[in-house]
């Protein structure tokens, strides 16, 4: 039997905010994908070695939840994760791996087609958070959840996640949501550590709750409704806020491009994942015009409107 593919994900809204119970909106990104496969070669040895360590982690901590004996045996037989999802780019490379392992080895697997209740989604998220903690130190479980379910999810709070429909994309739309490649990967753990250090500051906590979360939640509301004028009004505020308060997380190569978007009102940038490197997200109502300012960067359109 062919092993199923697990796709990348993009957190459109909610980076860092979901740690403090803001809303989040996440979508699958089928341009990148990964699957568990068997082959022994120089190319697969590195992935197999990583899986060997991960199998040990699950065996030591979660043998009651997974068939770790079968997992270890498959690793011994050369299993690896065949993936083109870039690592450290904020699009769910570890999330897809975790989803693939859960799908194959979970003892009491929750099957999406059968169990699409909020309670089951919350149960999945908890398990995925425990599994992904191996990679990031602490994980919300959101990335593997979206990679496993492969449908847009609305995060109302830490304990309230549901599926959601989005406005249909317009193939030749003038506006776009796009990715910009910073040219180098970022590391999640140090960025999250910076955020937690910032949270110790009362002033930062106040502006996060009163401004960032307010703009973030408004963006989700208007994006889901397809109301683009109020969406961009709030995106502008969100981008300005992040430029001021999330500067350490903005990849250095994109600092000027971030400010140019704000200054020209042509496009607005925001973090994609934890930042520090990898991708950032861009939103524009005129993609061709935005590209003239971003000609030095690789951009990938993920949604047209």
Description:
The chain has two domains: 6-163, Ribosomal Protein S5, domain 2; 176-304, GHMP kinase, C-terminal domain (Alpha-Beta Plaits, 2-Layer Sandwich), CATH 3.30.70. It has ten helices and nine strands. The model has no long low-confidence stretch (mean pLDDT 93). The chain is 46% helix and 20% strand. Strands 1, 2, 3, 4 and 5 form a five-stranded antiparallel sheet that branches. It has a four-stranded antiparallel sheet with strand order 7-8-6-9. The protein has helices at 42-61, 68-76, 93-105, 118-136, 142-149, 188-199, 202-225, 228-245, 255-264, 287-293, and strands at 6-13, 24-38, 79-83, 153-157, 160-163, 176-181, 267-271, 279-284, 299-304. By secondary structure, it is of the alpha+beta class.
| Ends distance | 38 Å
Number of helices: 10
- Please give the largest β-sheet: 5 strands, antiparallel
Strand content: 15-25%
Q: What is the CATH class of the largest domain?
A: Alpha Beta
Number of DSSP strand runs: 9
Helix content: 40-55%
C-alpha Rg, in Å? 19 Å
How many domains comprise the coordinates? 2
Topology-level CATH name of the largest domain: Ribosomal Protein S5, domain 2
Protein structure class: alpha+beta
Average pLDDT reading: 93
Do you know the CATH architecture of the largest domain?
2-Layer Sandwich
Principal-axis shape: globular
The ordered string of helix (H) and strand (E) elements is: EEHHEHHHEEEHHHHEEHE
Low-confidence sequence ranges:
none
